[in-house]
Amino acid sequence: MEAALQPPRRSFVREWIFTVDHKKIGIMYGVTALFFFLLGGLFALLVRTDLLSPKGIFAAQNYNEFFTMHATIMIFAVIIPLLTGAFGNYLVPLHIGARDMAFPRMNALSYWLYLLSGIVLLLSMVFGMPDAGWTSYPPYSVQSQGPGIDLWVTALHIAGLSSILGSINFIVTIHKMRAPGMTYNRMSLFTWSMLVTAYMQLFGTPALAGAITTLISDRHFGTVFYNSSAGGDPMLYQHLFWFYSHPAVYIMILPAFGIVSEILPVFARKPIFGYHAIAYSSIAIGFLGFFVWAHHMFVAGMAMSTGIPFMISSMIIAVPTSVKIFNWLATLWRGSVEYTVPMLFASLGFIGSFIIGGFSGVIVAAVPLDMQLHDTYFIVAHIHYVLFGGSVMVIMAGLHFWFPKVTGRMYNTKLGYLSFWLYFIGTQVTFFPMHFLGLAGMPRRIASYPSMFQFWNDVSSIGAYILGFGTLVIVSNLLYSAKRGQKVAANPWGAQTLEWTISSPPPEYNFDDLPVVSSNPYQPYPDPNLRPTTNPSPTPSPV
């Protein structure tokens, strides 16, 4: 009788290829992005392998292709899709008490466009890879031979369309599909971060589309947008590109801020400190993020006086970020802190590394300092502390935090702790020496260098291999545990957001009855010292 009540088993094609379930789409985003993470990491190891020798190991052209593919994959195929596509798709409807996204078919289309953009980028590995860096500045990108830049532009156009469709979906879903009683001031902080991120994607992505459309037009259709000898201006490309790409830095970090705000109160057993300050500081970051783009262009020919307003705005935007860090530390203060794997990634791993990136960011926001440091490895250190020590570290925290919810199983905690220490140590060993190299004057984007820089380059390359090993530990642990891990109860962490009130994994339509919300999800814990068990739920006796 019970077997007869079970829904019919769907084929793989119906279950995954044609799915419009936001949870499955989020999982597909995550699996695809993790594949590209491994590929982008491989290109990073090729770059660091080349730099083991002052004379370089690969040809300079190959080196240019490697660092171009590494950065492009990590930004457009890994970090943004993981944070917005994977975490955002899976969690936002659950956090607001909805059964799905507002436009499920559009949601599925956004994933398939993302996958198509990745495939187009992979085709360049067959027909010729782009070699102008992830920024592809003209005039070199206009003159570069082969199809690499063309495939790069095509992939970014498709990825941009995916981002626009996804952002529209998030905006409508969050504004129109919240459960009864779910006011804006009762939303989870992750939902707040996704709402601001969606608006930034919606308003910023068209500028990138304009930049790369005019670039491809100069390459093939005889236009002279960026040909200075014919009246064009290469600076126009930089303005269009960075009007999107500096907000993109916050697109890559705001959802990470939201994830940290979900993890810290759970394992500190305290309500989040300063809920409204954290939520509204996200809005401030989203607004100010569109007024700082030209600090990437201080050495591109701008008058110093023109750079002053951007220097001021770049320093002001550090204030709402500092508000978040203060509130996170206040949440931990005198909490009953349990250092689980996700807690280590989110606290020591993220906060400890991101503060370093924040300090170096304030340094290079100053016009005179940036003019000395801009084309050196100091900038490489800064951006990697922000995006790896920041975004990627939080991605790993989120993967371990919501893994039991997605799979209904627990990962191997010993391997989890090992992977954290490999990541934390690897991050410091890889990227901190780059500050020394930059201050000593080593230029970035070079395949060979004077032998005086070899020691710190060798140290940095060793750190990169530690990170590579840590990544393999994480991926193997999660893949094995998804099938063989110990089964857990619906809420193994004792968290308070809505996704933990339903089974793990969640049912297809999330909630049998839409929840009625009467408070925000950051309430005091009755007994902060009482920890939930991660043992399997008891199996009911057969009737």
SSE layout and pairing:
Layout: H1 2-5, H2 12-17, H3 22-50, H4 60-96, H5 104-127, H6 140-143, H7 148-176, H8 189-220, H9 234-251, H10 254-268, H11 275-288, H12 304-316, H13 318-332, H14 341-365, H15 367-373, H16 377-407, E1 409-410, H17 413-439, H18 454-484, E2 486-487
Helix pairs in contact: 3-4, 3-5, 3-18, 4-5, 4-7, 4-8, 4-16, 5-7, 7-8, 8-9, 8-10, 8-11, 10-13, 10-14, 10-16, 11-13, 14-16, 14-17, 16-17, 16-18, 17-18
Pathway: Energy metabolism; oxidative phosphorylation
Region (Disordered): 511-543
Enzyme class: translocase
Indicate the CATH topology: Cytochrome C Oxidase, Chain A
- Share of residues in strands: under 5%
For the secondary structure, the number of strands is 2
| Overall outline | globular
Helix content: 55-70%
Query: How many domain regions?
Result: 1
- Measured distance between first and last alpha carbons: 11 Å
CATH architecture: Up-down Bundle
Largest sheet: spatial strand order = 1-2
Structural class: mainly alpha
CATH class: Mainly Alpha
CATH superfamily descriptor: Cytochrome c oxidase-like, subunit I domain
Radius of gyration: 23 Å
| Arithmetic mean of pLDDT | 94
Q: Spans with pLDDT under 50 lasting ≥5 residues?
A: 1-5, 535-543
The string of secondary-structure elements, in order, is HHHHHHHHHHHHHHHHEHHE
In short:
With 543 residues, the chain is mostly helical.
Task: Tell me about this structure.
There is one protein chain. The chain has 543 residues and is an all-alpha fold. The protein has one domain (24-501): Cytochrome c oxidase-like, subunit I domain (Cytochrome C Oxidase, Chain A). 66% of the residues lie in helices and 1% in strands. The chain contains 18 helices and 2 strands. It has helices at 2-5, 12-17, 22-50, 60-96, 104-127, 140-143, 148-176, 189-220, 234-251, 254-268, 275-288, 304-316, 318-332, 341-365, 367-373, 377-407, 413-439, 454-484, and strands spanning 409-410, 486-487. It has a two-stranded antiparallel ribbon. Helix 4 runs antiparallel to helix 8 and helix 8 runs parallel beside helix 11. It starts with a helix and ends in a 56-residue tail after the last strand.
